[in-house]
Each structure stands twice: as C-alpha cells, then as structure tokens.
Amino acid sequence: NKKQQQQQRSEDTQREPERETSQKHANRPVSTATNDTSYSNDKITMSSNNALYMILWFLLLVFIAWPVAWFCAWWWVLLIAFEGLFAFVKDCTDFLEKIVSWPRVVGSAMLRGDKQFPAPC
Q1: What is the rounded CA–CA span in Å between residue 104 and residue 7?
Q2: DSSP class of residue 27?
C-alpha cells in the first residue's frame, strides 16, 4: 500500500510540469485571422469616415504648406546666423521655424483625418 502511494506521488510530480506548461499556454491570448481582419477593417472604416479631411489636408500640404515652408526655409537659414547680433532677428527666426515645421503638423493631421485646421504651432 505504501509503495502504491509513493508511486502515485512520483507520477503526480512528473505530471505537474505538464500541467504548468498547459496552464501557461491556456492563459496566452489566441490570435485568429478573423480578429486581425476585423481590427484592420475597423481602422479602415474609421479612416474612411474622415476621408474628405484627409484629402483636404493632403491638398493643403502639397499646394500650400510645402511651398511656403521651402520659401521660409531659405530665409530661416540665412537669418539664423545673425540671431546673436540683432535681437529682432530672434523673433523672425522663431516665426520662420514654426512655418518651416508646419508640413509635419499638416501631415500628421492628414494621417489622423483631423477635422480641426492644422495651424502652425
């Protein structure tokens, strides 16, 4: 009888690692193709609701933000060297820097489909 109990205990201890492994795998989230597809469909639906704003910000980016930023970038580069000499140049270069970085703001608003106008920061 004691031998049977000892054998039973040794078999139980051998099975415990198997149980731990199966429990670890049981707690892990299972990814299926349907879940991945529905998630991506939600993102597509969310983006398509704001498609008009995305197109509007794209046009703003291409026809206004980039050309204006390119023009201001030249002035910003030229004036930045004189920032230490004249106090008023610092104000000008700060303003020009906001305009030069405006396409970044417009681009992120385009990707998010924001409804609010992406003003230069």
Answers
A1: 71
A2: H
Burial of 87 (0-12, 13-18, 19+ CB in 10 A): exposed
Supply the pLDDT for residue 78.
96
Task: Give residue 110's pLDDT.
Answer: 93
> Reduced to 3 states, what is the DSSP secondary structure of residue 1?
coil
Q: At what angle do helices 102-112 and 66-80 cross, to 10 degrees?
A: 150
* Exposed / middle / buried, residue 16 (Cβ in 10 Å: 0-12, 13-18, 19+): exposed
Mean pLDDT by 10 residues, the chain (121 residues): 68 58 52 47 58 94 97 96 92 96 95 92 82
Q: Which of 97, 55, 54 is nearest to 75 (CA)?
A: 97
Determine the angle formed by the axes of helices 51-60 and 102-112, rounding to 10 degrees: 160
